[in-house]
Amino acid sequence: MKQLYRYFIAIVIIFLFMTSALHFMPKVVRFGQGTGAKVRCPLVPSELGEQAKSNDDSVRKWPSWSFIRKRSRKTSSKLPNIWDNDSGEDRIVSQMEFTPDIQGDKKVLWARTSEFNVPAGESIFSKCPVKHCTIVEDEDAPRIDAKMWNQQFSYLDVQRFNPAKTKPAEQVWIIYNLESPLATPDYYLLDNLFNWTASYRRDSTIVTPYERWRPKEAAKISKKKRNYAAGKSRKVAIFVSNCDTTNGRMNYVHELQKYIDVHVYGACGDGSHNCDRFENQTACIETLKRHYKFYLAFENCNCRHYITEKFFVNALSSDVIPVVMGAHPDDYRAVAPPQSFIHVEDFNSPQDLANYLHKLDKNDDLYNEYFQWKGTGSFIDTKFWCRLCALLNDPDKPSVVVESLSAWWRPPGICLRKDQKWRDSY
Which of 89, 179, 345, 403 is flagged as catalytic? Predict the structure, then answer.
């Protein structure tokens, strides 16, 4: 009996200890939910929970509020807006056109080349307007002006690198991230550590989108008529292998299939339609381009600005109309050619969407209206490394500190759950 009593006391102590630990542990965005542990996204990060619930008008919703402290130098750059990450613009073209007054002093950038798919040395900058940069892998190099880390950097790395002793005051630390907030570590305990951000988000220091549409000045719609529906006998396709996502995209697909033919390629399909994108991406895209009228460019989560190659490569470049789920409709409008896509939130239900797709399928004139953007612009190389080198060489670059990386990366409303809509958020 005494033995059982000891076991009971031990269990109670362990339970109390774990409860306390969980209470005081910084909250993260990812939570396990049963077998498979899919991720879900709360609307507010732990640092801002109480503020975001407030009705105080001074508490501003993203993207208006900022967690980045910026102090200007005595003079301004030739193009002041290249540093204006609060403008809502991506500033990509301005940064591409920016050529600072070079001081003759090369900037050395430390990066793990295998993680960024770049070679060490100066070759990546050889065709840039500003070439005064080089990449080294040796973190003990005698001089390093900037260090860049990929999205998997976490507070566990801080102790190993000990920035309090190893980071000079003028050294720029950059966090590079092309994943959604749901696919990255929680960035707590990284306050006042990073200076610049590089991601697809338009409030990044260096905006790095998957693609970038640039319209031609005074471009006119071509009078040449092409029927983009010609020869296409199939309606809707999707390539998808991640079946359990926070936005419930496969639930939407299954509901849509009740009202219109949707061919599912990949692990989430029933096996009746096969195309191994990893073995032969070109053949898969060619199948899509020749036979289908619509492509479901559904992201694996609904997060602001998060728009991947599913939209740009699989759909827009394949002459099919993309039906999108993911970022806010305004985010698509900001990066896409005009009237080039259909957003699921423009419809009350999958059935309503299917009815509209049937309408387009039966009317080639209406279908071709979604391709009037052809010839009015192009998708451009955003020249990330060139822009990075130019900004590093700017003698007037502001002193920038990300006061809370976690709060910047996961502000209120950055992602939605599958039971939420962008139109209801703000």
Answer: 179
